[in-house]
Amino acid sequence: MDAQKKQKLLKGAVITGIINAVINGGIQYFFLKGNSSIPISVDSITNDTATVLGTAVMLAITLSMILTLVAYFGIKEKKAAFFPTTFLLALRHGFVTFGILTSLSVVWQKYVGTFEVSLVSALIIIGVIAGLVSGFVNYFTLKESVISEEQKM
């Protein structure tokens, strides 16, 4: 893949990430608006408390899998077969997202503990996580699904 094509993919991924950060931060407002403060995490695997990282993990997993499919079906160039390539890519994105965010959540809880933030701060954190996941997923889906000129030969 040439530098110009990588630059175009990177620019598209950044735009996708920003758009998804704003949209998903806004959507989460309607789920969390009843809370004046929200813990980033709590010291329990099972709980009935809405937490920033708990919300972000589920949102990110869902986004990673859905956006893999959206990016794939939006490709107008010659692309790899959906099955098994993109199907497995969607699963991989979901598992990797789960692993990274869950690990970061556990490390946060271990070293920082339960820490509450305002609703606006919670929405910003969730939006940033959604944006980062969206950008990375978009970039890697397009990078791995578009068949380049070298692969066509």
Brief digest:
The protein is mainly alpha-helical.
Textual characterization of the structure:
The structure is a single chain. With 153 residues, the chain is mainly α. It has helices at 3-32, 52-73, 82-111, 119-145, 149-152; strands at residues 37-39, 116-118.
Topology:
Layout: H1 3-32, E1 37-39, H2 52-73, H3 82-111, E2 116-118, H4 119-145, H5 149-152
Antiparallel strand pairs: 1-2
Low-pLDDT segments? none
- Percentage of residues assigned to helices: over 70%
Number of strands: 2
Reading side by side through the largest sheet, how are the strands ordered? 1-2
Offer a few descriptive terms.
single chain; 153 residues; mainly alpha; two-stranded antiparallel ribbon; 4% strand; elongated
